[in-house]
Structure formats: C-alpha cells, structure tokens
Amino acid sequence: MELKIYPEEKFERSPLRYIIFWIIAITIILLSFFTNNIYWGIVLVLLASVYIYFHIRQKPPITLTITPQGLKIWKQILWRINFEGYVIEIEKEEMQIKNIVFVFRNKHEIYTITDTLENIKKFSEALEQYIPRLGEYPQTGLEKFYRKIKL
Asked: 34 and 71 share a domain?
C-alpha cells in the first residue's frame, strides 16, 4: 500500500503574512533613505532573498510504502519496532486531512499528505494492522507556537 506525501510538513500561508513582509520591507527602505545608511539596504536584500528562497523552494512528493519491516519513505526504512504509533492530523477550519505524524519513543516526524481521500483511508486501515493509531502526540509549547505561525 502506498501514499503520496511531501518529505516535510508543508504550510499554506495566508495573504496577511505577505502584507506584513512588505510593510517591513518598505520600512527598511524608508529607514535607509532617511538615515543615508546603505546597511539597511543590504539587510533588505538579504531578508528578501531568504524569504523568496523559502517561498519558492518546494520538494516534490515522495511515496510512503508499507512493508513487512516497517515504512519505506523514499529510500529510507523506518523500522516497525521503533514506532509508538501514528496520528492523522485534520485541519480544523477546512476539516481536511493534512498531515501524518509518526511517533517514536523520543521524537516524531510530520509529513504533509498529498493523496486522495480514498487512498488515505485505505492506507490508514492497512497501517493500523502494523502500527497503532493514536489520538494525539506530545508537542512542546515552542513547537506548537512554530506550527501555529507556520514557520
């Protein structure tokens, strides 16, 4: 059984994020103009470069496969014995299945799902035969904050 996922958690950012970025950029331009300081311009170019890089950087979807030994994610095998369980995350506003989280003893890995609802259901049913499905998983306050602001 296979499932198409992104190799990381993927966020869809709101237009408000872009408006805030451009307000900061215009403020930096005005500061550099009024203070006759070129360093503000350099900071703006670096900030814009990093922002554009992270905006356009997109890894292609990969295949998650259930094997008798565990899960195969692209070329890596996650051994079944190391799992505590998995969680399917649903986005509250849109009620869409968003992520699959694999919980291990001392960490968890989050992947964004990019497959059909029917295939997600079939995959989840097949996966439950090997790994228990959990209701939730432990997150630190800092991680919840990062995920809330979609960094």
From this structure: no
What residue numbers bound the domain in which 108 lies? 2-10+60-148
Q: Which residue has the tokens 């986005």?
A: 91
Measured from the Cβ of residue 60, the count of other Cβ atoms closer than 10 Å reads 8
Assigned token pair, 71: 């899960």
- The C-alpha atoms of residue 64 and residue 107 are separated, in whole angstroms, by 19
**pTM, to two decimals:** 0.69
CB neighbourhood size of 127 (10 A) = 22
Strand arrangement, sheet containing 96-104: 83-91, 96-104, 108-112
Answer whether residue 151 shows pLDDT above 70. no
Residue 83 to residues 2, 35, 130, 137, Cα–Cα distance (Å):
18, 57, 10, 12
